[in-house]
């Protein structure tokens, strides 16, 4: 019976160790893979958590899904980057108090040999037309994320409906798509932050082939879930988080983030450009 | 090739430096999976025992059902559970989504059919003379059940190990209902999926090796529990 009593002891131990998981206030934030994968939130959130004695649960998914789980009230606040989807989210009454947080930009990356001669393109639309014209391999996020929404916007402007064996819909996060592009020497649209993070740690060696078109502007907004729609959301702390990321101190963290590791910041503050 | 060795090397580094995050992730995985397996055993073994030893109408259908449920894809369990516990779902007010409890429930659902199905086959392997002998010696039905289960204990422990193996390695359900929240619902498998997506192959591999080692240690524990033959 010695063994049995030990087993019971293990059970009791396992059960009791579950208790702390219940304690303390928690705030749920749905966000995009880019903010999580780049490591920004690990720098931005801890001071807030300490200030308010609260734990922020970060759920990293694509923008489309991040807004969807905010719509159903499964999170308290959401930080995303697809202006058209965000505006619709607020207009339909699911979210309130949207604030601009920061921006970076999208860039088109691909193999050094650049078979579709994207380097020669004058606009992002032209770059996409060249890729489609040459049927060079292109990897799409294909996951209704902010980046995917932007890709589709550019394809639409290029009046092309991409399909065929050269157009791969990965259905994965930004980092995974960049690694796929690296493995397959394919083109891809990426936010600069995730790209720099992977380039800086030698995960990929694809150069930027096109950048700078205003259409590639990528802004991030933070929105509280409307307490009128969902009575249970932690609206007050959601607003506190919005306050923190758009405060001088929060914006300063965004401005400095990545400077030491990548030589330049990954995101540029938008709420207070010069915190 | 070299990142495989880098992964092994890194795994040792992470284990022996007692890296806080790796420790937390491993601990959470173990805790949730162990709890789920214990709960699944507490319900699955009696259920399997009754199904396996009693005769009733629909017994074969029930056995086929549990055998089928063993192959239930983890993402489908995740999806069904998600729609139940989302704020829009019938259990929404409990606020279970994106908590370790949600993962625990999901893993319980995954482990139970395996334990039931393997318990059924374990009880069918018991010598048919055990039951009448035990009853004729004056044991009550609980004591008889205890004797029969004790006869089948090796197969039963294998059932529990199989259930544990299913849940500690699954990623689909934990990712969906847990949300892969750092320091809260990030398990070894969801962390491996995330680190791979980030291109941190050696870190992901290191976690993989740690997962293997944990499984090995748990099996040693069970082996010891089975006792020497």
Model description:
The complex is a heterodimer of chains A (275) and B (229). Chain A has helices spanning 2-16, 33-37, 40-52, 63-71, 83-91, 124-134, 146-157, 174-184, 192-200, 235-245, 248-256, 259-262, and strands spanning 26-31, 55-60, 77-80, 95-109, 138-140, 167-169, 188-191, 208-210, 217-225, 268-269. With 275 residues, chain A is of the alpha/beta class. The model of chain A has no long low-confidence stretch (mean pLDDT 89). Chain B has eleven helices and no strands. In chain B, helix 2 (20-53) runs parallel beside helix 5 (100-124), helix 4 crosses helix 5 (100-124) and helix 8 (153-169) runs antiparallel to helix 11. The model of chain B has no long low-confidence stretch (mean pLDDT 89). Chain A binds chain B through residues 3, 7, 10-11, 14-15, 17-18, 21, 26, 28, 33, 37, 42, 55, 57-60, 69, 72-75, 172-173, 175-176, 178-179, 198, 201, 203-204, 230, 232, and chain B through 31, 34-35, 38, 86-88, 92-93, 95, 97-101, 179-185, 194, 196-200, 224-225, 227.
Q: What structural category characterises the helix and strand content of chain B? A: mainly alpha
State the major sheet of chain A: 8 strands, mixed
N-to-C CA distance of chain A: 67 Å
Catalogue the unreliable spans of chain B: none
Shape of chain A: globular
Question: What is the CATH C-level name of chain B?
Answer: Mainly Alpha
Can you give the helix content of chain B as a percent range?
Answer: over 70%
SSE-based structural type of chain A: alpha/beta
User: For this structure, what is the CATH homologous superfamily of the largest domain in chain A?
Assistant: Periplasmic binding protein-like II
The share of residues in extended strands of chain B comes to under 5%
The CATH topology of the largest domain in chain A, please?
D-Maltodextrin-Binding Protein, domain 2
> Tally the helices of chain B: what do you get?
11
